[in-house]
Amino acid sequence: MSTPTPPSTPRVPPSVAFVRQQFSHSGGAELILDRTIAALASHGARISLIAREWRERPGITFLRCESGKFPRATRDSRFAAAACGIVAGLENTLVQSHERIECCDIYRAGDGVHAAYLERRVRTLGTARRFFQNISPYHRDVLRLERRMFASPRLKAVVVNSKMVADEIVAHFGFPREKIHLVPNGIDLGRFSLPSLADLRKEARADLNLKPDAKVLLLLGSGYERKGLPQAIAALAKMATKAELLVVGRERKPSYYRELASRHGVAGRVHIFGEQADPVPYLAAADAMILPSLYDPFPSAVLEALACGLPVVTSENCGARDAARELDRDMVCDALDIHGIASAADRALALAAQGETKMRCRAIAEQYRMEFMIERMLALYEKLAAAK
Fold this sequence. Notes:
By secondary structure, this protein is an alpha/beta fold. It has helices spanning about 30-40, 75-85, 115-120, 125-135, 135-150, 165-175, 195-205, 225, 230-240, 255-265, 280-285, 300-305, 320-325, 340-350, 355-365, 370-385; strands at about 15-20, 45-50, 60-65, 95, 105-110, 155-160, 180, 215-220, 245-250, 270-275, 290, 310-315, 330-335. It has 16 helices and 13 strands. Helix 12 (about 300-305) packs across helix 15. The longest helix is centred in the C-terminal third of the chain and has 18 residues, at about 370-385.
């Protein structure tokens, strides 16, 4: 696995087409792609985008891919077929896909490895749910697309955002490690100013009905099961510290998690806010982040928390585990180890009370500046362009 060295004057391919089904303002992968496109366009590349839906921007050719969202069981394969039909009509164009398709030159594995996700998820399922996962037409369709893509002779490079995902690709598909390029997600540090967050903290806590001296954990991310909210709630009930838990992110069934909190006796300390346009007030109100994910390739939320000076508790199944562990090795544990998560959360709150912790967290986030990610991607494009 290689990490490209940023070039001094990048020579990008003259024409690049990106493939992604749709843009979501809450999706970290989409935001990363949006910024990559902008950087390439600023270096003179002709950019086209193949998608069902996107936020259109000047100077970028939008190629609408009409494949339909329903039925879900074959949604991805129908999109892949339609996208490859469009790609077939492009000439002298480097194709980078963020979806599992056979007709790409570069695949950015921002969503990780579906086969690995299913392996992690099965640990939480009962017999009936495990059976239905195994026979699910949707999962079978995605697994088939994944296998075909990694076996495609056209695929020249795979971009991963964590070593965890790189290892999974090699283990599941035998894909050559030398064709895997580690480019961690980047973060816009300008959004998260420690002095501004300190000024906002009192106001944010008042707006959220939190006491000024409350110990507050934050879980930030969409899809609460995958992000580990059940374990976070269970751990909250076992912590030595009587902490509050803020939950922010998109979820179809939030009522289930409110009932779960009630069963664990912490209903009054679990506050579910759903999807929010701006996470900054919640980050300002928190003392630490808790994200015991079942599977998470590299959540930008971890970097956002570190940029805000917050210790992060996460799992071995999270690609950002090395960033969290850099502050303290006890911040990472098994996703289903409730006592371990509770102990790590207590430790995180203790660290948050130490004066130097905010600057230590910020220093970790500084290693993931958005400019570094863009430079590494430009280096990879230059390498591939030179090989043509």
